[in-house]
Each structure stands twice: as structure tokens, then as C-alpha cells.
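FAQ: What does the model actually see?

It sees only this:
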Amino acid sequence: MSSIDAQAVRLARRLPRTPSIAALAVALAAVALAAMALAAMAPAALPATAAAWGGGGKGGKPKPPSAQVNIVSQGTPPWRVPAGAHYFNTIQAAVDASKWGDWVLIEPGTYYESVKVTSAQSGIWIRGMDRNTVIIDGQHRVANGIEIDKANDVWVENLTVRNFDFGPQCPDEECGNEIWWNGGAGSGKIGAHGWYGSYLTAYDTGLSGGYGIFTGNEVEGSWENIYASGFADSGMYIGACQECDARVSGATMEDNALGYSGSNAGGRLVLERSIYRHNLVGIAPNSENPGDPPPPQDGECGRPNIENPDPTPIITTTRIRRCTVIRKNLVVENDNLTVPVNASTGVAPWGAGIELPGDYADLITGNTIAGNPTDGVLGFEYPNPFTPENGFEGTIFFQLAGNRISHNTFLGNGSRGGAFTGDLTLLGGFSEIFGYPQSHSENNCVIANRFSGATFPAEIEGTWGCQNQTTPNPGGGPAAVEYLVGLQEEANAIREAQPPVGQPAPPPQPTMPNPCRGVPRNPLCR
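And it is asked to produce this:
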């Protein structure tokens, strides 16, 4: 083990559950050092691999000179309020009074309300003056925290939303979302563009928080310096965008069923320089049917027919350009079986750092993946929904094809033991087992990683190396199916013996250094 590897192991073990800025910087520096060391050793990048993409939406919008500042305060307004500034007692009233280019600034306080932004408020900023003391509190009632409903170019920044739950009268996905950019859930269409968030905290201390920070059916966006914990689905979610045009960086996702989930989200999409730890599963981009259409999850650059894609594309070579990129993250100890789960996450194979259920053409590169008890990376074919009882009616047999896993550092994964556990496992060939046409889980490739444990197939950088123009199905047969189903059954048995519990509230997170940046002069920003 090199000195860089040893340093990464020590950092992963010593990293506090919610890092200080210094600890975060040190940890990500270790990831960068490991990636740089690997890059120095690696051969030149193959022409078929994607260049590092720097997307993440437009990154801003013009500020009209007549922008109004709507201030939310629980105190008494000043005696003289200058022109262009207005005071409100609730966030919703300030939002309702806003139009394109206006600002909603929120003074410290705890606000017991739900907030809805409609298309009439496209192009506004909602910003708290302190991330940790501007709190929107759901008190575990069934509702959403902030919902941005088919509104374009809306920023939400520097605040905390907590304890909005789902329930029988409003199920998961419809409620229980702390901050939700909703471009038209279930529509199968892109209904909005421009979703931006930074310095956001979302958490739930009960059992019925659905999603922390959530966008669906939208394109062009970014999240930076965000935190989420305690959710039965995922801490953050991007879904239903075949060409997402988005970036996530500086995120910390812990104590969720899934740290990140991305159903049918692909194209230009980057998840980078973030921490995923103590979740049931760390990162899980996935193909999904019938939810969040259209399927599949596909990271290939420049696919034709984005609006109506082929749900089971056949990738014919390893030398393709990949625009969905998971890079330079710290993915450690995703082992938490005490987290709340819902119907979909409760059946996920547990204990993996990065899980690829039916994914196409993603690039996993430069990550440090350590201490995950089942697999560091686990990729597999995904028949969904899995309905053998009715002859697989309605099932799509999503394949695992065209993914590239390169220049990662794997450390101490697979402590659970048994077949198919370890640093990296790719599984396929399930279609034939169930009497369906030949599997096409082909042209996945692996190169220039540092392994400390087992891989399946063994010696994976040979036959399945990216030096090959094509690679075969990894196989696994009935034993692989039994492994995946066994992980589900194992997790269920543990939860029956020790039911899930609410996860702890996080300590304060780094707040925005200058919340007045870019804001017109007003009583809070002089």
C-alpha cells in the first residue's frame, strides 16, 4: 500500500460524521492526491472516453435594474424602509409578491410554513441570511417544505429545511420533500429549466422524510455545498432528465437510504468532490420503470432521439464518449441499516458505495471508495419491475452496458464476506435465466484502478480492460441473482429484528460567506 493509500484510509476512518470545513478540505485533498497519483501512472486517455465536462447549467440570469428586495422578518420593520424594499411576515407572502429578478431575503428565525413557488415567480432568488438559523420547520406534518412548481431559473440558498413528511393522505414523492424543484412529476416531459441551490441543509429526524433536495423533469441546474440526512428515499435526487445538463459539487450526504439517487437521469451530468457516507447505499444512478419516465439512465454523449429514447440501447464498443461523470468523491462506509426506507429503497442491495442498476455509459473516475461492507462498486442488470409471478408482464430488462470505471482507489470494501463481495463487482446474463432474449450487458470497461480486495470477474482489468475495443458480458448466472436477492433478504431480516430509527439532527454547516453578494442595497445589505 502506498503512502497516499494509507493516508486516504486514515482520513476515511478519522473523518467526523459531519466534517468541519478543514476536515472536508483535507479529505477532498486526499481524494485529489490519490487521483493525481493514479493519473500520473495511467496511460494517455483513450479517444473514446469523455473529456472532463464542466457543465452545470447557465449558472445565473440577468438582474434587472428595478429588482425588488422582499425581506421576511419576525421582528418589526425599520421606521423608514427605502424604495425597492418591502417587509413581510411569512416567506410565502414575500414569494407571492416577487417577480423575475426579485430577491426574497429571510432574516434568522424558525418559520412554520410550507412555501410554493409557481411559474409567476420564475427568475427569483430565495436566500437566507444564515444557513443554520434560517429554518423552515415542518414539525413532522405531511407536506413539502419548499416546492418550486414549473418555475424557471429559481435559486434557493443559505437556509435549512427540516421535518416535512409523507403520509397516507399524501404519499412519498408527492410529500415529504424538503426542497423540490418540480418540473412536472410523472409527466414524462421536461417542464422547467434552471434549478440552482447552494449552502442548503435538509434533514428529517423521523421515519417519513422522503427526499432531501430534489429535482425532477427539469434541466440546467447545479447544487453546491449542500447537506442532507435522514431520508427514506435519498438525500438528493435528480430524475427524469435524459439530458440533465447539471452538476453537483461539495455535497455531504449521510444517514439516508440512498445518498444520491438518479432515476433515468443522464447526458451531461456531473457528481463531483462530495462525501457519501453512512447511507444504506452511497450513490445510485439507475434506470427505472415505470417511475420518472422516459427510461433508461444513459450517460452517453450526443444520443439521438432524447425525447423518446430506446429503453434498452445496445452499446457496441467501449470507445464511446460518456457525459455522465461521477468523479473525485469520497464514498465511505455506506453501511447504515438503521435508516428509514420506503418501498423502493427497502429492496435495494445494501452496503455498496456506488450501485449501478441497469446503467448505461457512465464514467466512474478518480473516486476514493472505502469501507463499504458489500461492494465498493456494484453494477448489475436490472429487470424492473421484477414480476416473475406474472411472467414479467411490464418488465423492462435494463442492461449494464458501456460503463467505464477508471483511476479509482478502492480500500477495504467487502467486509461482509461471501461470493461477489469486494471492491468491484459487475453482474449480467440475467435475461437468459428468466427465459428472455440474450443479455447485452457488454462493453463495460475497467482500467488503472487501485484495488485492495476482490473483483468479479477476477482480474477484471484484463478481459474487461478499457484497452479492449469490446468486452463481453460479465456473467454471474443464478448465483449472482441469489446474491442480489440475498442482500435484500438480509437487510429485511436485520430491520425486522431492529426496526429503523430516526437519524440524528446534524450540527451546524458552513454558511454562505457573504449573503449580501449580488443583492441590491436594502436594510439588510448596505
